[in-house]
Design goal:
- Two copies of one chain form a homodimer.
- Chain A contains two helices and 16 strands.
- With 190 residues, chain A is mainly β.
- In chain A, strand 15 and strand 16 form a beta hairpin.
- The interface between A and B is large, with 49 and 49 residues.
Chain lengths: 190, 190
Amino acid sequence: MANIKPFTIDLDLLTGLSKSKESTKRYLSNMKGMFSDELAYENLLKQEDRLLYEFYELDLPNKDSDLLFGTSIVYPGKVGNEYHMTKGHFHTILDTAEVYYCLSGNGMLLMENPEGDWDTQQLKPGSAVYVPGRYAHRSINVGNEPLVTFFVFRADAGHDYGTIEEKGYRKLIHDKNGEIQIVDNPKWQE
Amino acid sequence: MANIKPFTIDLDLLTGLSKSKESTKRYLSNMKGMFSDELAYENLLKQEDRLLYEFYELDLPNKDSDLLFGTSIVYPGKVGNEYHMTKGHFHTILDTAEVYYCLSGNGMLLMENPEGDWDTQQLKPGSAVYVPGRYAHRSINVGNEPLVTFFVFRADAGHDYGTIEEKGYRKLIHDKNGEIQIVDNPKWQE
């Protein structure tokens, strides 16, 4: 028997924000150790604890028959020469996919799997990016406006943030004199 | 092991159309028996085999770890006093959910489950509608512009169109002098 009834959530197509629901917010202080330039991070944090990104989390049962969805908004800016980004995560049930549909802004989705394959896909308005199962994924704002995406994944997938927090990603996305560069992460370890 | 690589599809945020992929199209002639006013249907068909709606289908493995997604575009108009609509379907794996995010237009999502519960949710730009498992769902354009939605569901869910083709929905959405009316389907049988 169905125990969830049909429902609607408002998610603004331009800002990504909802009038009816509270977002989860990640400030600079929530991202310790995630950016490569630790000195730049500490100096910025002394000035202001910026809002880096926010997203919506639904409270549905963790069932494989259900889906979780919402928007993610990554605000523009850099920490050192590294663009604002989400923590990124694997799914706890590793082999579960996710879809990101870009509503506005200019960004990249950085992905890697435990087998060593990595990939980036551009996020621009109208791009629907498929993150296959097994791929950790992080949104990065390489533009000057908020990066807004609509995402959907299986409700039982779960989030594994710890692996990324410990190991980082194989690749970093840096700004070098206005050019977007994909560089090796010197701290990354197998 | 992952056998699908990350990929991107372009799906225009305004029109819903893709430049890189061919849509599946449903013309009036594909909808025989779906509209309640059969005489109006036959008369319209003699004049023109209109395009009622189109949508995108991805070719991914039917695995519960994958997701299928795309856009659906229902063009405005009526057959008799019934608004243009999709055939609608149950999922073959009945207890699998779907998400519809409305990008433009003005519509309704009509839903019902085998237990007899039915529901409508409004589709307007920025509305994200959750179709829980077990609910058949049909998009209906009650406005004057194309109704464009972005949808996501589990890749193994499958489509059961036959049940709706045989039994119809419990409810019909009609126009009565410019007002949207939800009326009982006289042909519906348990």
